[in-house]
Design brief:
It contains 17 helices and no strands. With 470 residues, it is mostly helical.
Amino acid sequence: MSGTSGILKYVSSEHLARKIDFQGPVPSTKEVYRRALNIAWPSAAETVLVSLVGSVDTIMVGGLGPAAIAAVGLTNQPKFILLALINSLNVGVTTVVARRRGQENREGAQKCVRVALMITFTLSLILAILGFVFAEPIMSISGAAADTMQDSIDYFRILMIGFVPMCIGLTVNAAQRGVGNTRIAMTTNLTSNGINLIFNYLLIHGNLGFPRLEVKGAALATILGSTVACLMSIRSILPHDTYLHIRLRDKWRLDKETLGSIWKISYSAVIEQLFMRIGFFTYVRIVAGLGTIAFATHQICMNVINLSFSFGDGFSIAIASLVGQSLGAKRPDMAKLYVKVNKVLLYAISGTLSVIFVVFRYQIIGLFTDEAAIITEAGTLMLIIAATTVIQTSALSYTGCLRGAGDARYIAITAFISIAIIRPLSAWVLCYPVGWGLVGAWISLFIDQCMRCILNGTRFHKGKWAEIEV
């Protein structure tokens, strides 16, 4: 314990407080770390659990062969494209609710939740219908081959049936993160994963008398878990003694001022999501062109790197909440301090993960498949993943700060440069003309992460984000 205290003291005095012009009382080192961890660890656990839903599906359909792994993987980018509008809305929700909390404007925060839920329900219903009806052309455009087409269509259509509750749960959790309540999202996703795991076991291979549904069973398990999670999220905003509380008799209307505040942040996030999804979609199409075995290998490795991304994204969400609340309370100095604290914690986590990815790379890949060709190539890619992990988490800490401050326009610009242009262009060049295949695709991912870290880090250190009004 004394060693930990010594480390915290050193980090606080030598690194965290350096170059910060404090504008009021500063909590003790232990208090700063305590608050950062209280918000960050449930948020990190939540994002890890969300990523594990996809990993669990991939692992449990792995016994059906590479084509089944590829079919599940092919649905990811179309699903995220449909989620782009909802995710963009939720960026605005978290930012606005955090500011209102910092301003001690509880009614303003609750009004934001009501407006967001009305928009989410309408948008998600429309998107779910479109996704279900046009599943076949969507999968065709995504690169589904003859051996993956039907499974990918079936999986995607079943996901669309549970799309509305999935989106509503995401919006409620986004609002809760704004007030610093990250534990509800962790709890709901833990429950969702448990249900998904149980029904994967029962439905994929038909265990304990249940029908053998294979890939369809994995999709059904996913929507059952997300629906229960949605109900739990809604329940969290029903009690009268919670900070965010909604009632049916409240004024459910699209308040112009609240809508304007959300839109001010969300419209740039929409552009960011658009660039991201175009870039990711193009990238996946390039990799899919390498063949089913290569794409199955890629999909397994994406599940692995999503683990480190999830830790970084969870801390990024916590940073956004702390920065938003600090700026709402007119304390940009504390916002900077919280970013630095979370970066220290992230470096410790990402460094540990990098070592694990190198030392146990073949054992980790072996959890997903027993195909020798996949294990061999994925083992090489794991070295790139280990190198990417630290860069990725650092970039996400800067992104969280800019997002919490409402600097969504700049994040959209970096997404355009790095994800929509640099990643797919370098992937194509390295995969085909250079001839590096799947290794080239993963080097392009590393280049993309480095570029985002540089661009967002430069913006953070200039400090203009602290002057944005929401």
